[in-house]
Every structure is written in structure tokens, then in C-alpha cells.
Amino acid sequence: MKNNKTIIITGTSGGIGFTLAEYFGKKGHKVYGLSRKTAESPYFTTIPTDITDNTQVQAAIRKISDESEHVDLLVNNAGMGMVGAVEDSTKDDIWKLFNLNLVGAVQLMSAVLPAMRAQKSGQIINISSIASEMGLPFRGFYSASKSALDKVTEAIRYEVSPWEIQVCSLHLGDIRTKIAENRVKTTVSEPYRTTFAKVHDLMNSHVDDGTEPLDVAVYIEKLISRRNWKAHYYFGKFGQKVGVPLKWILPQNFYERLMKKYNKLD
Fold first, then answer.
1. Residue-wise pLDDT tens digits, 53-106
2. Is residue 168 a contact partner of residue 126, using CB atoms and an 8 Å limit?
3. What span, in angstroms and rounded, lies between the C-alpha atoms of 22 and 24?
4. How far is CA 26 from CA 73, 164, 194, in A?
5. What gap in Å lies between CA 266 and CA 257, rounded to an integer?
6. Which positions are catalytic?
7. How far is 84 from 123, CA to CA, in rounded Å?
């Protein structure tokens, strides 16, 4: 991995994004963090940006382009979770989630691609989730938003390949962050309350026992040193990663029984 990369990371006010920004900043790279809240760190520059507002996104990328000769890496990390029954989710809840997890990421890609085309190089990592590969109970719209981002990632890989631009989805398992505090939570109606309470406690315990954000940074450093990328990479604990190939090979009904047991729904 060459020195003096210009790296743009979204969602750097805390959690994975902050850890990534400091990690690469300490390595000597020029790191810009885009988040609504300013993060105080000597290792990267924060540009306050609401990535759902394309005017702010374009202004942030112009500022970076004015200060840097190249844009080497974009990590679309900003996102939010959402929990609740599909039946109880409102149009506003769903739009808020997709606007950040999908539209915001697309706006960032669109903003950096002109510079990457001009230099005929660049890398884009869209932070996805292992949950994008399956519809999880009481997280259906979160799974859907990340799955939509995955399909956009697959499509854009074809479109930008003439310019040697690499794009991938990095599917994360549970990472030990404060994501549980920032999830959109729908009103849970009476028929679902008992089951939801069990699943909600379980998903929070998985986050508390999750992989450290620093491990994600180390993994990404290794990933961006590779010459040719696959469309999808998976990072997390074995028990979560193994759910992906099992879904591909097991009969659907048998897989659903396993998922019910894993989520304490049996």
C-alpha cells in the first residue's frame, strides 16, 4: 500500500468510521472524514456533511479535490440500523433508512467518480452487512437497504471497469460499536412485543460481543493492497459468516428453522 493516499470516509463521528479515519491517518495518509458531527482528531480532517444532501456532498468533494491531487479511496461507511416488525414500519421510517444507507452512498460514489476516471484509478468500499444476504427477523428493512446497496455495487463494477476503478461490498458481522443507540426503532405493536423483546435483547448482546472496529481497519488495509477485487467480502465471527454459504446450499425451510433457532424464535 503506497504512502500518501487520499482517503475519504463517511460516518466518522464515532464507531467504525472514526476508528478507520484515525488508523489510516496515523499511517500517514491524508484522510477526510465526512459526518454531520465534527470529530476531533489530529489524524484526519472532518468536513461536516450530511451525505443525504447532495449539495453538501458536492461541496465537500470539491474542497477535497482543491486540496488533493488525487482521490484514491472512498469508504462508504455512514449508515444506520432499523429494528421493528415489517408490519409496523412507516413510510417515513423506511425512507429515512434507505436515504442514508443507499442514496447517500450513491451520491458519494457519483461525486468521486469524475476524479477517479480522470486519474484512471480509484477504490470504493461500500460497507454492507452479512444481514444483507438474508432477511433477518425484525430487521427486514435494514437487510433490504444493505441488499439494495450490494446490487448497486455489482452494477457499478461493470460500469467503471474501463477506468481501472475497483468497487466492492464489505459485509460486516456484528462490530462492537454504539450502533444499538442510533438505530431507528419503529413502534412495536402488541402481537409482536414478546417476540421482539427476545430478539432485540439478543441482537444487542451480539453487538456487545462483536469484533473490535480496529480489526476492521486492519482488514481493509489488507484489502486495498490487493490488485483485483471480488464484488463481495465478508468479515466477522465464523458463526455469522457461515450463515451466508449455508443459505446458498441448504433447503429454504431447513435454513429458516436454523435461523429461528439462532434468533431464539423456536
1. 999 999 999 999 999 989 999 999 999 999 999 999 999 999 999 999 999 999
2. yes
3. 6
4. 16, 27, 46
5. 8
6. 13, 128, 142, 146
7. 34
